């Protein structure tokens, strides 16, 4: 039986168009967290939604200001999923690999941890040091006006690149804080391990098998250094998909497939179906999108007269 401190603490990061964000996207987060918790090996402490940059060039992609707002509306009642605008705010489109590395580096800056270089992993843990005596890394619940954008932790870097090991801070109690939500008062951990995992559907996993679509070096970092959590969609055969890619086969132990005995209706919900329903005035759109998102779409006249 693993203790709380020996379990791997996980932040799930999902990249995509979210054009618009659907109930299926939120369901994916919930199913992944439930599955990881049931495994007894993981504790999910946060989820991040990162909408793609406008220059991605996908037909029918509405401006990021709308997609960010819809995402915010979709997670407004969640106490653990937040929306991160960094990707949208860049000068141009960012690769999934770059987004993962940004959040890892952001965590490094916030926590003061020293991380090994991606291309020269250290075989021994690196002890973290405070950085330049800037503002306090820990804040109490009475002072959260200047919130950092990532979970606040302190400590050392383990030998695996996507992981941050953290030791107990001096303060008796501290809080995980992000831009939109207080993730709750944390236990006084002697040492915990934190990983950022890419959360995706089986369609993204399948895209890894398309020659030339992904750079091999990016795939090596995404699957090898970080790891992915896959929520299968519409009865997809993830085992077959993984066997079609040498990189996926090589890092199979870093791929967690969320198994579900019941085919949940949310697993077949998609942004494409949602846009079609909106264009055709189909009442089933309420099955695909949350009401605040539908209200915003109608108010802003999105998708109604567009194709794609």
CATH architecture classification name: 3-Layer(aba) Sandwich
Q: What class do helices, strands and sheet pairing give?
A: alpha/beta
Whole-Å distance between the termini?
Answer: 50 Å
Mean pLDDT: 75
Shape: globular
Residues in β-strands, percent: 15-25%
Q: Quote the CATH topology.
A: Rossmann fold
What Rg, in angstroms, do the CA atoms define?
A: 20 Å
Low-confidence stretches: 112-190
Most strands sheet? 8 strands, mixed
Subcellular location: Cell projection, Axon; Cytoplasmic vesicle membrane; Golgi apparatus membrane
Catalytic activity: nicotinate beta-D-ribonucleotide + ATP + H(+) = deamido-NAD(+) + diphosphate; beta-nicotinamide D-ribonucleotide + ATP + H(+) = diphosphate + NAD(+)
GO cellular component, one term: cytoplasmic vesicle membrane
Membrane topology: Lipid-anchor
Verbal overview:
The protein has 308 residues and is α/β, with parallel strands linked by helices. It has one domain: HUPs (Rossmann fold, 3-Layer(aba) Sandwich). Helices cover 32% and strands 18% of the residues. It is built from 11 helices and 10 strands. The strands form 2 sheets. Strands 1, 2, 3, 4, 5, 8, 9 and 10 form an 8-stranded mixed beta sheet that branches. It has a two-stranded antiparallel ribbon with strand order 6-7. A hairpin with a 5-residue loop joins strand 4 (155-157) and strand 5. The chain starts with 7 loop residues before the first strand and ends in an 8-residue tail after the last helix.
């Amino acid at each position: 039986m693993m203790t709380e401190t020996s379990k791997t603490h996980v932040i799930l990061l999902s990249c995509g168009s979210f054009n618009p964000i659907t109930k299926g996207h939120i369901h994916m987060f919930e199913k992944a967290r439930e599955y990881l918790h049931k495994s007894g090996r993981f504790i999910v402490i946060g989820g991040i939604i990162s909408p793609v940059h406008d220059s991605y060039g996908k037909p029918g992609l509405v401006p990021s200001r709308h997609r960010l707002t819809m995402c915010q509306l979709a997670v407004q009642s969640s106490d653990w999923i937040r929306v991160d605008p960094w990707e949208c705010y860049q000068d141009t489109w960012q690769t999934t690999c770059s987004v993962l590395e940004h959040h890892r580096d952001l965590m490094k800056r916030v926590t003061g941890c020293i991380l090994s270089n991606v291309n020269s992993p250290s075989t021994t843990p690196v002890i973290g040091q405070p950085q330049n005596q800037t503002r306090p890394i820990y804040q109490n619940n009475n002072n959260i006006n200047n919130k950092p954008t990532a979970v606040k932790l302190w400590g050392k870097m383990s030998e695996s690149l996507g992981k941050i090991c953290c030791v107990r801070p001096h303060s008796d109690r501290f809080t995980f804080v992000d831009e939109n939500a207080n993730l709750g008062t944390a236990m006084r951990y002697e040492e915990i391990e934190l990983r950022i995992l890419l959360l995706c559907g089986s369609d993204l996993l399948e895209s890894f098998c398309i020659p030339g679509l992904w750079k091999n070096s990016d795939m090596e970092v995404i699957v090898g250094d970080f790891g992915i959590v896959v929520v299968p969609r519409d009865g997809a055969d993830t085992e077959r998909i993984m066997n079609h890619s040498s990189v996926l086969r090589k890092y199979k132990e870093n791929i967690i497939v969320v198994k579900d005995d019941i085919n949940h209706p949310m697993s077949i919900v998609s942004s494409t179906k949602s846009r079609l329903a909106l264009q055709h005035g189909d009442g089933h759109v309420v099955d695909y999108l949350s009401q605040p998102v539908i209200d915003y779409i109608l108010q802003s006249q999105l998708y109604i007269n567009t194709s794609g």
